[in-house]
Write a structure and sequence with these properties.
It contains 10 helices and 13 strands. With 351 residues, the chain is of the alpha+beta class. The N and C termini lie far apart (77 Å). A hairpin with a 2-residue loop joins strand 6 and strand 7. Helix 1 packs antiparallel against helix 2. It folds into 3 domains: 103 residues, Immunoglobulin-like (Sandwich); 75 residues, Phosphotransferase system, lactose/cellobiose-type IIA subunit (Methane Monooxygenase Hydroxylase, Chain G, domain 1, Up-down Bundle), CATH 1.20.58.80; 144 residues, Glycosidases (TIM Barrel).
């Protein structure tokens, strides 16, 4: 049966943060606080309460956090995600009849009016909350309800009704049967801390040999990892580490022709030794690279490598699929380009 929307008196608007009206997830990192704000209001003079609901994506149970009123119908709450993944969040708002009753009781008592009827109303609200509480706090709420109905001096009853203990327990078992939930469930995507900030250090492994003019290897590169870590870097970024093409190989200072012994640009990927799935043998073996990554991790550094899609004319993909030359020229770079037509690119790193 369709819910009676007319019973929902609370309006919820302007939830923040959200991106593209909720079409895209907000981004946060582990341990980074997510503050949610919203405008929550109702008709009349009744008191309004708001609550933040959040949970990991696909979890069944919502976590609940009371929102704080900042004035002018603006509310705010925050939570700190402690795991990567996606979280859902939304806002619930309702008319708080008990807080409204407390406000009226205080005014009438301070004005010296007869509050016997008011106390009876309060006792009824406490009994209704006892029904929602189940066994855990039912007896306590029923006991307070009975006290409000006793014919005794008003002052101690008002003190009881306005006490922190009563208020907190009634907030815990507030009536949400006519509450309004924001019409969207928004998403925050939580990533690891390095998605928030990291410091990258780029170097060419072939430039790490201790002797000038000698081609460096992954083993040579391991030597400088502790120094990079001491400088505060937590990511090592390497240019392509694949075999380098020999046709149209670039030379020193971006020259379109190379001299014997010049290694060429590592972005011209592919030679007889292999393509994007192979390691440049001048740098070492796949096992050497795995050892390099492991030792980097031991110093608190992660390794990132350049994923360059272009192929040199010597690349196995071009040899195996010559039709690529006609169909997808972007994949093989300068394979159809004469040396005189070479477009200037990155200069090859020198020793």
């Amino acid at each position: 049966m369709r819910e009676l929307e007319g019973k929902k008196r609370v309006v919820i608007e302007h939830i923040s943060p959200q991106i593209g009206s909720g079409r895209f997830p907000v981004k946060r990192a582990i341990g980074e606080k997510l503050t949610i704000s919203a405008d929550v209001f109702s008709d009349g003079h009744d008191e309004v309460k708001a609550m933040l609901l959040y949970r990991p994506l696909h979890a069944e149970k919502w976590e609940q956090l009371p929102m704080t009123s900042l004035g002018n119908d603006h509310w705010e709450a925050w939570f700190t995600p402690e795991a990567t993944g996606k979280y859902e969040y939304t806002v619930l708002g309702w008319v708080d009849h008990f807080t409204t009753w407390q406000k009226g009781l205080r005014k009438k008592f301070d004005a010296g009016q007869d509050i016997r009827v008011e106390l009876m109303i309060g006792a009824q609200l406490l009994r209704e909350a006892a029904d929602r509480a189940g066994d855990q706090n039912r007896n306590q709420l029923q006991h307070w309800a009975g006290q409000l109905k006793d014919p005794q001096e008003a002052s101690p009853l008002v003190s009881l009704a306005l006490s922190t203990d009563v208020t907190n327990l009634m907030n815990q078992y507030a009536d949400h049967s006519s509450a309004t939930q924001y019409h969207k469930v928004l998403v925050v995507e939580v990533e690891r801390k390095k998605a928030l900030f990291s410091s990258w250090y780029e170097f060419f492994p072939r430039s790490t040999a201790q002797e000038p003019g000698i081609h460096g290897t992954f083993k040579d590169s391991e030597r400088i990892l502790p120094r990079i870590a001491r400088m505060g870097f937590d990511i090592v970024y390497l240019p392509p580490i694949h075999p380098i093409g020999r046709s149209f190989r670039k030379g020193r200072n971006n020259s379109v022709t190379s001299q014997p012994g010049e290694p060429g640009s590592p972005w011209a990927i592919g030679a007889s030794e292999g393509g994007h799935k192979a390691i440049n043998p001048d740098l070492g073996t796949m096992e050497d690279f795995i050892d390099f990554v492991r030792k980097a991790n031991e110093t608190g550094i992660e390794v990132a490598i350049d994923i360059a899609l272009q192929c040199a004319p010597d690349h196995p993909y071009v040899k195996e699929s010559p039709a690529m030359v006609q169909v997808a020229p972007r994949w093989y770079g300068a394979v159809r380009r004469k040396p005189s037509q070479e477009i200037p690119g990155r200069a090859a790193h020198q020793f």
